[in-house]
Amino acid sequence: MTVRALSIILAGASLACGGSQTPVPMVGPEADITNLAGDWSGEYSSGETGRSGSILFKLTAGTDSASGDVVMSPQWAAGARPTQTPGAPTQAPTSQTLSINFVRVTGGQVSGSLAPYTDPSCNCPLHTTFIGRLKGDTLEGTYTSRHEQAADPQQGRWRVVRKRP
Questions:
Q1: What are phi and psi of 33, to 5 degrees?
Q2: Is 8 helix (H, G, I), strand (E, B) or coil?
Q3: Distance CA 88, CA 121 (A)
Q4: DSSP code per residue over 78-99
Q5: Angle at CA 68, nearest 5°, toward 77 and 6?
Q6: Long-range contacts for 142-149 (Cβ within 8 Å, ≥24 apart)?
Q7: What's residue 74's pLDDT?
Q8: Has residue 137 got a pLDDT over 80?
Q9: Between residues 81 and 148, which one has the greater pLDDT?
Q10: What SS3 class is residue 114?
Q11: Residue 165: exposed, middle, or buried by beta-carbon count in 10 A (0-12, 13-18, 19+)?
């Protein structure tokens, strides 16, 4: 098992055991929101940035909010290293917990955004939106991240699976 895999498992375990999961507003028809009820876990990754991490969230039937977080564990791809000040010590990337801002669901399509967070490669704000589709007990789709000052988006894929009792 790699250090990265272990860090994702430990971060996921700490979130699952009552970490700082923030309530996430759910918007959409009640029946569509009810279809998302359950405990979900999975991961995301981007070949463009070399970053990956885990996704955990829970939605209780009969409510209009979920709780969940995204744990980003940067893994730098060749040429995609954080900027370094000459002479400064090189630091290994660290995991950070990202909050899901809101989720909209309609007819099996899910979309939403993360709260802005600091991009570890430039120490600048990053805004991320996601879209996906529900198929049975699997939600999967894509995400797009944009820097406030840059026009080029970064993209990746995500997938979560509902745990059955």
A1: -65, -45
A2: helix
A3: 15
A4: TT-PPP--TTSPP-----EEEE
A5: 45
A6: 143/44, 145/49, 145/119, 147/119, 147/122, 148/124, 149/124
A7: 60
A8: yes
A9: 148
A10: strand
A11: exposed
- Say whether domain 3-76+93-163 belongs to CATH 2.40.128.120: yes
Of 85, 67, 58, which Cα lies nearest the Cα of 160?
58
Residues with Cβ within 8 Å of residue 78, at least 6 apart in sequence? none
Average pLDDT over residues 78-91: 44
156: part of which helix (H) or strand (E)?
strand 154-163
Q: Is the pTM higher than 0.90?
A: no
Mean pLDDT along residues 83-90: 44
Give the mean model confidence (pLDDT) for residues 67-85.
55
The secondary structure element, H or E, covering residue 9 is: helix 3-16
In this prediction, residue 76 carries a pLDDT of 45
Dihedral over Cα of 82, 88, 90, 91: its sign: negative
Beta strand extents in 17-137 (DSSP E only):
22-27, 38-45, 51-59, 65-74, 96-106, 109-114, 117-119, 124-135
Give domain limits for the chain.
3-76+93-163
